[in-house]
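Milestone M4 deliverable, item 7.
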Amino acid sequence: MSSLTEKDRPIVQLLLNTGTCPRCILRFCCVGSQTLYRCPYKDLMKDLKEFLKNNEEKEDTVCFDAVDPPCKRIRLEHTEEGPDDLNHNGALQQIPSVNNENTTIESSALKVCNLCLGILQEFCEVDFIKKVCQKVNSSDYQFTSFVFSVSLPPQLSVRERAAWLLVKQEMGKLGLSLAKEDVVQLKEAYKWIIHPQLSEALGVPADGKSLFEVSVVFAHPETDEECHFLATACPDCFKPAKNKQSVFTRMAVIKALEKIKEEDFLMHFPCPPNSPKNQSVALEIQCNNGAVFVAGRYNKYSRNLPQTPWIIDGERKLESSVEELISEHLMAEFKADSFNFSSSGREDVDVRTLGNGRPFAIELVNPRRIHFTAEEMKGLQQTINNSSDKIQVRDLQLVTRSAIGRMKEGEEEKTKTYSALIWTDKAIQREDIAFLDDIKELKLDQKTPLRVLHRRPLAVRCRIIHTMKSEYIDEHHFRLHLKTQAGTYIKEFVHGDFGRTKPNIGSLLNRTADILELDVESVDVDWPPSLDN
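Output delivered:
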């Protein structure tokens, strides 16, 4: 059982008289029963009326029966003397005593709460729950649970501080103290009320770890400027940020409230806070699903297809890319807002990727559909493969965010196998290139290639050619199969890049060499898991 006791009477009387709603009064009485906050507003007001009518000599008062145990307590302490009944020019205002409790309660029932600005009033009612559910249902998301988030106007923190100072003074007269952290937070109380109603209406449980988020953004234009005095008192707390419309963010206001002295606060803000004319407004009701990750391997068969869109100075150079050919079908099926493509390395536009393909992953942002069976993923893979002869995908599957790290680890740690068609200016015979087959663990020093210097920092990178196997074609051509350390620039190893890669095929053969074709034959990253396709 959680109940208000005699020591709560002056707080209830004080806050009711200053225009505070029943649920905010419970918060400042440190009532931790979730069930109690869910009682109908009129019933709470009625119970408070009965509570105040009770005989003051009675120790345990009426009460607010609830199954949840209290989680907050007012602590009995000898407190230091604070400013006594100061006015707005530096302190607390005198609050007239409540002579007519009926009048007080009826008046409070009609007013917008001076602490929550109506959020624990109208926005806890069935009509608002219906409005939220309509938004969720019309958004067409798949979800099996939800997490509810609330964005509150920053000025609420200022009003809370004023109310706390008021109640703290009243408690001090009784030899009691009230710590700020003992007051039930507005956001917490609101979620206690909303969660069961939304859960019942949506037919799924509330879960703090759910990937599906329902969020409400509240604002109260009438009191927007109430935070502004803090910028003068604590200018260091309010610094412009590119992604913020206002410097008066909730965190900045809280930081300033922690720094400002009580007497300075009371010089600039009324205590108790004034009752507003209008209640808060719900600016936005939004839904968002956490990202879904799809992985697989792709083969690229075209020598005229970039991995990602090739755009220079705003002009597209080629009509498509590997990324787009795969993602357009995933975007359509998952009904996502956007995507992010990543892979284990990348090939040049004129390089093919053969063998078992290159591992890739796509993050699908805010997808409406998230549940796919193995058969549906197999069908989606077939749709992608039927759409173009330039690429093919395999092992298409849903993965977790953490699993993608295994793909990125392989970019530098694993080996890759290539096949290069090489031309030489001087005629060659089989025996001229046979010695390449015997070279093992050849160490290279590669300066950043000239062709990528505009987007990569200048550096000398040590890379290793593990093995080579030559295949003679004619006097000026041969094919070279290489197994290398990931990150090796193969084209530069062949032609030398004006001496920036040493040694190179040209220097080893003592003649000019150039590369005509390059294929990636394998990317030795054991991810994602192979499927029986």
